[in-house]
């Protein structure tokens, strides 16, 4: 895990949230699985390893609260499941957008960190007066491994 429990506690307090074991565990699970896009059920199974008495409803409530407090991000990858990931603020910098590259052949999801839309957001604001707060971008295609295997979809 890249962030200490104390840092998690500090972040929760800064957001005006009560520090609970459930919140800490959900944040830890998401931080430990940064490369994954976890469903609430995935989080539940991982949290249960250390906290077997936790209920799925608690996970849903915790994730929703952390989402509202902008400590986690929700992504929809068009598979009918809401998925969650730790927010980008953990790197100690201003929030940075990242996008997702989704392989249509194997389903792999790769993050893409360059935000090439900042100029577009500025132009939108200059032209229309509309201030963009957030955006999400998904690219669909085929990953390198599937291309090498010659698997087309």
Automatic annotation (TrEMBL):
Binding-site residues, Zn(2+): 103, 106, 143, 146
Cofactor note: Binds 1 Mn(2+) or Fe(2+) ion per subunit. Binds 1 zinc ion per subunit.
GO BP term (any one): negative regulation of DNA-templated transcription
Residue positions binding Fe cation: 97, 118, 135
Keywords of this entry: DNA-binding, Iron, Metal-binding, Repressor, Transcription, Transcription regulation, Zinc
Single annotated GO MF: zinc ion binding
Name by which UniProt lists this protein: Ferric uptake regulation protein
Record organism: Dorea longicatena
Gene that specifies this protein: fur_1
